[in-house]
């Protein structure tokens, strides 16, 4: 069951990255390279787990975890900042995470 969740999430990650459109923004080669490596890593995790080779998916999964760690370190551990949209439009997830009272 967890293997299926890994596959679905890895495919979703790759598809979201593939569907990104930068519009009028400037091309950033390093960001493009990182996005490409994330797509390849997520695709590798999905394909390797789909074909029953989860031990070979450890390398790509390690890369994805390292990117998460770097993103969190860049925000000094503030998870909400990872989901904040620039400009006046706020991410619904960031709004949800910022809620002070839950009950």
TrEMBL record:
Keywords: Membrane, Transmembrane, Transmembrane helix
Domain of life: Bacteria
Alphabetical list of InterPro entries matching this protein: Phage_holin_3_7 (IPR008473)
Pfam family, any one: Phage_holin_3_7
Keyword Membrane annotated: yes
Membrane spanning residue stretches: 33-51
Annotated protein name in UniProt: Phage holin family protein
Organism: Chromobacterium sphagni
